[in-house]
Design a protein that fits this description.
The chain is mainly alpha-helical. Helices cover 71% and strands 0% of the residues.
Length: 473
């Protein structure tokens, strides 16, 4: 029996044991019983909901089944063991977060299929100086510009790293050299780490949006506005570090003609690619003006999906592949955590348990650091970033008022700190991206950059606190 199968079997059995012990053998804590009665439920039901959730966490941690299948199992067990109506448990699939993912991924597929993303990248590369400093800056800036356009972090990172490695080859940076790592980190920063800046930067943004309170007043535009200080601190700092610590000893200037030639090879912007560009621009405008015109972002996403198929940019058969159905089902499933917890009083119970703990911590800065550290530790257990965000929000959102932080601020600390890649399974996007280097960049040698990112990101969140308070987020 190989190690992976052994691990799966251990977590499979562990999950089932935890379900039985917590749900049927342990007595209901008095505090949980009280919280459940307040919510109009019973302690027994609340404990079984908690037991099913622990089972799901065990299965996610051990990758026993695909993440989406475990989410379906969790919902089904809540229905069977908790006695909830099917429409209540599976009601999150009718929510906006689930369907904005559908629309956004249809648009992302159209952008990738027509080559629009690649055209934009090569067009912008012509603007920057053909030096190490210029091209690393180009990778970061282009990644930031492209960040809100495609919610698939993997697609963006793969393209960015592929272009960066091509530039590194042209500039004659040896494998495992400073220059090679500099180009890689610049691409990863711009095309990967930029995801939290926009709600449409990745599926994790939509996940976080789905668990925020409806009255928090966050839309596409306000999210982007709120992330301005974080963006400046993180990416200016990362660029300075890349420029001065990864600058190659011997550098070869890249000819500007190289970028122009790559752009010319793409031909004219016409046909399906032009249609995609128009749909993309219109969708971004609708997302930006969401609160002013009253059109929900999910509706804008569905409009974009409609035109992608109606104009023939996507073929009808691509309805099976364009949306990432695994993610749609997974996110739709885990988004039910918050609503089910509130129906049985688990949120009130968590609040009662954590309030005394955080009541002893008078420093908001220390609370923020604790949340970030706990998130990183949780990411060693939960490989799925979306699951980590939702589980952490279910724990910390109820005590937001007590610790003096809004749900958005807590969510953003969880989101940004959860981008780590200390071990390969923590960040599938990063692990996939490094394969584009064909062994010329070593995984172990990227871990210091992960530590640097986490420190800078945490500092950026702390610097943003007064600004976020001023914005009312």
């Amino acid at each position: 029996m190989n190690k992976r199968l052994k691990k799966k079997n251990i977590f499979l059995i562990l999950g089932i044991l935890m379900l039985v012990v917590i749900g049927y053998l342990l007595p209901v804590p008095a505090a949980l019983e009280h919280a459940a009665v307040q919510a109009g439920s019973t302690g027994k039901t609340a404990l079984r909901v908690l037991a099913v959730t622990v089972l799901a966490v065990c299965w996610w941690s051990g990758a026993v089944f695909p993440d989406w299948l475990t989410a379906i199992a969790m919902l089904t067990l809540w229905t069977l063991l908790g006695g909830f109506p099917f429409s209540t448990v599976f009601g999150s699939f009718a929510g906006t977060s689930t369907w904005i993912i559908f629309g956004a991924f249809c648009l992302a597929t159209a952008i990738s299929k027509t080559g629009l993303f690649k055209r934009l990248s090569w067009f912008l590369l012509q603007v920057f100086p053909p030096t190490f400093q210029g091209q690393t800056l180009a990778m970061i800036v282009i990644g930031l510009i492209c960040s809100p356009l495609i919610p698939s972090a993997t697609a963006k990172a793969l393209l960015g790293v592929s272009i960066a490695m091509g530039l590194a080859d042209t500039m004659e940076y040896a494998a495992d050299s400073k220059g090679r790592y500099g180009m890689f980190f610049a691409a990863w920063a711009g095309f990967g780490l930029s995801a939290p800046i926009f709600v449409s930067g990745s599926v994790y943004g939509y996940t976080l949006m789905g668990v925020l309170p409806e009255d928090c007043g966050i839309d596409w535009g306000k999210w982007a506005l709120a992330m301005i200080p974080w963006t400046i601190v993180v990416f200016v700092s990362l660029y300075v570090i890349i420029r001065f610590f990864f600058k190659p000893v011997d550098t070869v200037a890249l000819s500007k003609e190289y970028a122009r030639e790559q752009y010319r090879k793409l031909g004219k912007l016409e046909g399906k690619e032009l249609q995609t560009a128009i749909v993309l621009c219109a969708t971004v405008v609708l997302w930006t003006l969401e609160s002013r015109i009253g059109v929900n972002a999910s509706v804008s996403g569905m409009i974009a999906a409609f035109f992608c198929f109606a104009l023939g940019i996507l073929e009808p058969k691509e309805i099976y592949t364009a949306p990432n159905w695994n993610l749609v089902v997974f996110v739709g499933g885990v988004l039910s955590l918050g609503s089910i917890f509130s129906k049985v009083g688990i949120d009130l119970w968590v609040q009662e348990v954590l309030n005394p703990l955080f009541g002893r911590v008078s420093s908001t800065i220390l609370v923020c650091v604790l949340i970030a550290v706990i998130t990183i530790l949780v990411r060693f257990l939960l490989a799925a970033h979306s699951a980590a965000i939702i589980v952490m929000m279910a724990i910390f959102a109820p005590v937001a008022a007590t610790i003096g932080l809004s749900p958005f601020v807590i969510g953003m600390i969880i989101y940004t700190s959860g981008m780590c890649w200390f071990v390969p399974y923590q960040n599938v996007v990063f692990t996939t991206s490094i394969t584009c280097t064909e062994g010329k960049v070593k995984y172990k040698k990227t871990l210091l950059f992960c530590v640097i990112y986490e420190i800078i990101s945490m500092a950026a969140c702390l610097i943003s606190l007064p600004y976020w308070k001023m914005l009312g987020v």
